[in-house]
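Holo prediction. Input below; ligand is pyridoxal-5'-phosphate.
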Amino acid sequence: MTNPKPQPGIMNIKPYVGGASSIDGVDNVIKLSSNENPFGPSPAAVEAFQRAGHDLHRYPNTDHAALRGAIGGVHNLDPDRIICGVGSDEIINFLCQCYSGPGTEVIYTEHGFSMYKISALAAGAEPIQVPERERMVDVDEILKAVTDKTSLVFVTNPGNPTATMVSQAELARLARSLPDNILLVIDGAYAEFVDGFDGGAELVERFDNVFMTRTFSKLYGLGGLRIGWGYGAQAVIDVLNRVRGPFNLSMAQMAAAQAALEDRDHVAHCLSENTRLRAWLAEALAALGIPSDTSCTNFILARFANAAEAKDCNEFLEKQGIIVRMVGGYGLPNCLRITVGDEASCRRVAHMIGKFKGGAPGSKLMLMDEDRLDEEGK
Ligand SMILES: *Cc1c(COP(=O)(O)O)cnc(C)c1O
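Structure of the complex:
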C-alpha cells in the first residue's frame, strides 16, 4: 500500500512562528512582537469594514478595481499593473508558484523574512540563503550566488528584523547586474516608514524584471484583515493573475483597505508618532548600553552583549507582561526586536529593560528628561 505523498520540498518547511500575543497568567500584556500599529487602523477603515457586513451574501468583485485605483492614486502608479492579495504573503506565494519550482533556486538574504523560504519550498524550489554584511543586504553576495538555476531574488527594504536599508544606488546596481530572466522582488512592507522612499517603484518602471510587494499590515494597522499588493511589469502581473483565486479578497478587506489608504491624516499621525517614539526608545536603550542600527521601520533591533543576555531579558520582560520578539531564528540570537508602541508602551519597555540591566531609580535612563519625549515630535 502506498500512502499519499506530498510534493518534494513540502516536508522541509518549518512552519512559520508568529510573534506571541499572550502570556499565561498575565491579563494586560503589552505586545511589541509583531510590528503592529499601536494606534490601530483608521476609524474610517473600521467603519467601512462594518458597513461591508450588510452585504455578506454578495460575492466580491474579482478585479479589485476600486482598491487598485486608490493605491495607484496615492502612490502614483499604474493601477493596471497592481495585483492585490491576502497579505503580501499571498503575493510572495504567487511569485514562487509562478516563477520557481523544481530545479530552480530562490535567493534570499541571511536575516530575510522567513516566508521567502517557506514559499520557495512549497513550490519545490531550492532556497538559497546568502550572507549579509553587518545586518545589511550585501548586493555582491547576492550576485555571487546567482547561477543558471536562479529564478527569483528576494530583498526586504527596509529589512525585517534588521530595520536597516540598502541604498537606492545599490538596489539599482543589483537590478542592473541581474540577468534579465531573474525576477528581483523588493519587499517594501516597511517602505511607508521611510520619508520619500518609493519602495522600489521607480526600479519597477525601469526594469521589467523588478517587482515590488507592499502591505496594509504595518503602517495601516490592518494585519488582522490580510491585505497586500504587488506592482510589476504588465507581463508579470498577467502571469500572477492566472493563479490568483478570483475571489481572493472579500468586500470587507477591499473596503477597509481603501478607506485606510484614503485617511491621510491618520497615516500622518501614525508616522510622526513612530518617528518621535522610535528616536526616544533607541536613545533610551543606547543609554543603557544596548545599541541598535538606526531604524528605518516601526521597530528597533536591540543588540545585547550575547545570546544569553538577550534571552534573559526576553524572559524578564515576559514576566512583566511585555512581549518582544526573539530573533535567533533569523540568525540574530543576541538581539531582541521591539516594535515601537505608543508612548506608554515605549516608556514601560525602556523602564523594564533598565530594571533588567540593574538600573535603579536615579540611573541614566531615569534621568532622561521626560519632557524631551514631548518635545521631540515638534
Ligand atoms: C510584515 C511583513 C510582510 C507583510 O506580510 P502580510 O502578509 O502583508 O501581513 C511582508 N514582508 C515582511 C518583511 C514583513 O515584515
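The pocket of pyridoxal-5'-phosphate is lined by residues 87-89, 113, 156, 160, 187, 189, 215, 217-218, 223, 228 (CB under 6 Å). That is the main takeaway for now.
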